[in-house]
UniProtKB/TrEMBL annotation:
Keywords: Ribonucleoprotein, Ribosomal protein. Coiled coil: none annotated. Residues 21-55 are annotated as: Disordered. GO terms for cellular component: ribonucleoprotein complex; ribosome. Belongs to the eukaryotic ribosomal protein eS25 family. InterPro entries: Ribosomal_eS25 (IPR004977). It comes from the Eukaryota. This is 40S ribosomal protein S25. The keyword Ribosomal protein applies. The keyword Ribonucleoprotein applies. Residues 41-50 have a biased composition (Basic residues).
Length: 127
């Protein structure tokens, strides 16, 4: 009789499953994300290469016209650095440094401040 006590709850549970009302499908809870519109996989985002800087084509040797322009215009600049000469004369940096040494030797410009990486010059005045 003791073994029947264990079987009765099991039979009652099975009968409850057989005769209970069918379960209704629960609606999914509303999600905060909007539903995807349209089918298909979305395209993967491509990385942009950023803004492409235009490569400058500076001269590596002075031609006569540029040399004459250097001797006439550069001593009139208020501020003279290798980068300014490189931009305005369209020459590369090493050529601009050589040009500054040439202008210094001729006495057309004078040194304002010198640092290991940056030299600043100005026009020579009569003072």
């Amino acid at each position: 009789m003791a073994h029947l006590l264990h079987v009765i709850p099991l039979v009652a549970a099975q009968n409850a499953l057989l005769f209970s009302a069918p379960k209704k499908d629960k609606a999914p809870p509303p999600s905060s994300k909007p539903a995807k519109s349209g089918g298909g996989k979305q395209k993967k985002k491509k990385w942009s290469k950023g803004k492409q800087k235009e490569k400058v084509n500076n001269m590596v040797l002075l031609d006569q016209a540029t040399y004459d322009k250097l001797l006439s215009e550069a001593p009139k600049y208020k501020l003279i650095t290798p980068s300014i000469l490189s931009d305005r004369m369209r020459i590369n940096g090493s050529l601009a440094r050589k040009a500054i040494r040439e202008l210094m030797a001729r006495g057309l410009i004078r040194l304002v401040s010198a640092h290991s990486s940056q030299q600043i010059y100005t026009r020579a005045t009569n003072t």
